[in-house]
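Key result, reporting period 2: structure in, sequence out.
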């Protein structure tokens, strides 16, 4: 059974930083693709960043240059470093698995962690 646990959300002022982590179990982590999505009130869930089994990353245009996604295969964890946060980054952030190898589409989700950025 796949289980994803997110942590690291919180409240910061604009310009601040947060680091989200997602620890996975029940998957072959070394070959899994994973990603982060977010959903703000009234909005659809959107993709933020993905990472394939080799550590190659993709980012939404809105976060490029500010967010960095990395993976630690020894800890079955992915880490999303978020810098220069803006109020528009306020959302619930969800970790997701995305298949094997390259990220295809999300199939398993974590419970989400709230990020709130105040101006």
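The corresponding designed sequence is given below.
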């Amino acid at each position: 059974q796949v289980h994803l646990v997110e942590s690291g959300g919180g409240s910061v002022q604009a310009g601040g930083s947060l680091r989200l982590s997602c620890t996975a179990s029940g998957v072959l982590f070394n070959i899994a693709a994973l990603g982060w999505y977010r959903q703000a009130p009234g909005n659809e869930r959107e993709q933020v960043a993905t990472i394939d089994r080799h550590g190659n990353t993709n980012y939404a245009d809105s976060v490029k240059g500010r967010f960095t996604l990395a993976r630690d295969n020894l800890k079955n964890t992915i880490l999303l470093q978020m810098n220069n946060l803006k109020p528009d980054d306020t959302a619930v952030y969800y970790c997701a698995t995305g298949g094997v190898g390259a990220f295809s589409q999300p199939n398993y989700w974590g419970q989400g962690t709230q990020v709130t950025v105040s101006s």
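DSSP finds no helices and eleven strands in the chain. The radius of gyration is 13 Å. This case is discussed further under Risks and Mitigation.
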